[in-house]
Specification:
about 525 residues, nine-stranded mixed sheet, 13 strands, two-stranded antiparallel ribbon, single chain, alpha/beta
Length: about 525
Amino acid sequence: MCPHSLPKDPTMNEIKSFDGDTAPLPMPMDGTNMPAAGANELPHSVEAEQQLLGAILTNNDVFDRIAMTINSTHFYDPVHARIFEVAAARISKNALASPVTLKAFMEDDAGLKELGGPSYLVKLAGASISSFAVRDYAQMIYDLAIRRELISLGNSIADKARRVDVASEPTEQIVEAEQSLYMLAEQGQSESGFKSFLKAVTEAVNVTNEAYQRGGGMAGISTGLADLDKQLGGLHPSDLLILAGRPSMGKTSLATNIAFNVAKAYKRGKKSDGTEGAVDGGVVGFFSLEMSAEQLAGRILAEASEISSHKIRQGDMTEGEFRRFVQAAKDLEACPLFIDDTPAIPISQLAARARRLKRTHGLDLLVIDYLQLCRGMSDNRVNEIAEISMGMKAIAKELNIPVVALSQLSRQVESRDDKRPQLSDLRESGSIEQDADVVMFVFREEYYKEREKPGDHELDKMEEWKQAMERLHAKAEVIVGKQRHGPIGTVELSFEAQFTRFGNLAKAWQQEPEGY
């Protein structure tokens, strides 16, 4: 049987074509032309395409139900693709798409002439038995198109791998292949595009319900720092959070603490929407572009074991401390914290590795230390930073996770009397501030005050300095300079330099009275 032939259904009447000839009404067919083993024919279903086109030409209203699923490129038969294109163009202009109206646009189409000319359009309309199955036919056409794309992509990967080219490294080919596969997987997502207000409101209520169930104040992932959670409402999916500071302020330490707290609290179970995933904490990916994985692990172990990071580096520990260190390492073995310490990684490769981690182990939080050490494609540094910040925001939205990216600040902070950082201090590009949902600054006044120590002969100044140092000792500030969905303000934290650990700062009313 010719792939375009439409078999006669004895239960249906014949209809007249434009030329007055009779055309048989087809039976609905669900056969799929899948290639036999070793055959070169690509998977397709001409019958499904005929049924779908017939339904559209019979009732234009069904087009809206499948427009988000498929387009003309998903059709195997090029004639069917052109029929769909013309019909879609007319329907989008609120014009009728029927065999009669399409005849004027496709009368000279060579491919259509081979199938019998405009009478083929009449046969398609007659082939449509019911419009209730259009979504199933559309999904079938889409699935088969994806299979063909996969075959094409596989052939392309194989061809590139066969060509030994100095300019095309195998690692680059792997990244390219991953990106192509992910883009293919993201095609045809029916959830994209407009959402009804009812659906948007329902999702907003679900988020608020999660916050209410947790006791209020937080809808996102907890950072493990109560006052910071209260200010931010937790770390929210699809948000890009910039954590900036001058060197030695402790931004890497804070990012490490947050990553460790989230990974340590990880619990898997059934979420409120019925899917499996993290119900507390999460799987964390950490791109450490400045420090090695071993150095970062050392910092985490210093915090967990409460042994000075300097002692850990030097190996200068008592037997009791070493036992505590080893026990902390054992306790953290199952912690879902994954570290990538590849230096100067391109933003495209960073995105590909994040996708791979989400696919293989899951991913609930991504931390990048730090933004300026990533690479973009542009030769202009300002444009390159803009490309990197936009890329990080795109990762947050694409993977639906919070991304915490660290950033350096310009030296102009040091020239001011008040060393507290501002949004204008973000280095090299205003796009960082623009793309970020939250911008936070780490500030430790103790660091600057320590360098203002007066001479021993200046007794009055020395006394003032000592009092100031006592007041500022072991304290840090996180200044929220921008928050798209909440208030700005300052959060005070404790900072234990020897353990590189930030913590919740006890308020005066929370401290126990003397004698207890």
